Amino acid sequence: YNIRSAPFFPFPIVPFHPLFPCALRSGSMAAEADDPTAASATLEKFRLYETRARFYVIGSSREKRWFRVLKIDRSEPSELHLSEDPVWYSQQEVKSLLQRIAEGNRSTGGLTFVTKAYGIAGCIKFLESYYLILVTKRRQIGCICGHAIYCIDESQMITIPHSSVQTDVATSKNELRYKKLLASVDLTKDFFYSYTYPIMQSLQQNVTSAGMKETPYENLFVWNTFLTEPIRSRCHNALWSVALVHGHFKQVKLSVFGRELNVILISRRSRHFAGTRYLKRGVNDHGKVANDVETEQIVFEEEAGSWKGRMSAIVQMRGSIPLFWSQEAGRLSPKPDIFVQRYDPTYEATKLHFEDLAQRYGQPIIILNLIKTVEKRPREMMLRREFFNAVGYLNQNVPEERKLRFIHWDFHKFAKSKSANVLGVLGGVASEALDLTGFYYSGKPKVQKRRSIQLSRTSTARDVEIRASSGDLPRLSSNADALGSIASQDMRKEDSKHEPLGDAPCYQTGVLRTNCIDCLDRTNVAQYAYGLAALGRQLHAMGLTDVSKIHPDSSIASALMEMYQSMGDALAHQYGGSAAHNTVFPERQGKWKATTQSREFLKSIKRYYSNAYTDGEKQDAINLFLGYFQPQEGKPALWDLDTDYYLHVTTAGDDSYHLSSPHGNNVPGGSGDAMSPRPTLSPVPACKEDFSRMKLTSFDKLIERTCSSIRNVRLHCDADLRPSGGVGTSAMAPDAAYVVLFIHDSWLNLLF
Question: 380 with 277, same domain?
């Protein structure tokens, strides 16, 4: 194997398993010792030195065998000049170099050590000076097939120009306010990265993307694309920066009769149309939706510190309803009115959104819509009907295989029933969706047969041992209520439809897209139900269980519920300002109902306060961090803008993301079929708007905004609908406000 042929992964690759780490450490370390270019894959440790004229960033590989030098000029007050030394230095050579630099600058203060770091998160300019953002402390939170995943414990922003060359602008009130605003984006919360694994991409994409030679910083899930661009463009590589993903990462290890398993839950938040709850709703002109989050569930084996090649993954996503709609954040009501802000007769933005999903994940696109159908005061039901009409319109004159699959289920209406089994119903929907999309499975390597185990409610702590990657032992619950009639079907009868997948790998084509109004609370319950159904099939495919369903009262189901609950709370804090509202999980876990109700009430108060008083500044910080707003002297400041809508539609952005293959959704054979083998399955590169709003800065402004303005209201005409519920042939879309809504007798409408 030629080390130089794999510029980003300097270690041998097992032909069957592109992420197999067995040869990683021995091959990589030996090659690195002999050939310094092998270390060019990743620089993981950095030391920052300064003189009066320059900063010197000394980057080293993990083993500190070889070093590179990055020089940053400090003599320009508002320009960024940096150069990368192409020479690889040994440890002794870099010490000698630093001594010479110190000697040469003795007359101006010499060479001073500033800080150690573990990567550059970005570089940014406000009104005058450039600033360097460093990761100064890291913590490992997981490991995917031998590749470490880190979060940030501490970061530091360092001014690049020397104080002697700065002007008064560098210390102006606006400059300091921009610095404070950027610092409010806390990198120590819910950001994670890896040096050797492209964490911004799904496992399936990493396996099938062979030959990629650049870190995919243009991926929609990399949040510091804008911040790292000044360094990447000047160095023509990504050695010095780390690609940060925003969302949630959780890893749990399972020991099933001595067989080690890892279950990983990853949520990746899109940087497009990103923001807070009431300030980012619906879709923008480019088809990007608010609160767009991809969730991946990975399962792989672990034995004696190495993986035997079997792994599986499933991807689902959530996102705001892809229509032009909004809610007023300034109202005192905790449930503001919903307004469809723009009349889009051909649903062009909605079409762009689903075309983007098809490009990312393949076909089919399955939509699970959980919003209300019956309300005393029409709010959600307006969007439900409009969304239904949009899907019907887009499905006209489209081949059957490309039609959107729309499932509507009123979550709240069904959950009110005392005998309701919400998870059972959602599990049925999940099973149907999995039949259509399939899931990724690496195939079975040729290893000795092992005894398969059925995980049921009778599993004991001795049978299934669960431990979190952080070292904390999750408390397992086995006191959940029995399933209702829908979910208590015979597992073995259900499993007869799912035969073992055999030796060949299979791939996911298509995706389940779940939404409610906020895509937080109800959506998270639905995603757990999907994850549980998928986990059963994943374990069955890997030969670990006899059936493809996991009993909802088993220990492994309880552990998975805790993972999804943690994920839901994290995503709700990011978008809504509080933990996720949830009564289904606490009820299943046997928690006291009165305690649950009091907690939900406190969450409502916290979410309301965040939405009404702090989300404006939070949105400004996100726009600054992502580069949607770039300050300029003499131009209006970010906090003086009445709206940020145009910031999110002036550029479409580049999305280098496709689940199925590098060429989009052209997956041979569809879901469940093996893709044709590639000559070499190499790992991919190491990782290194909205509508007019007034920012609420005082209670007086909040009161002023409670007076609602007159708005155009469009009334729905039932003549636009066919008796069967389909959409008429007229190109004009039905309107968004309704006087009469006819409810179907069934609580679940499946429109395929």
Answer: yes
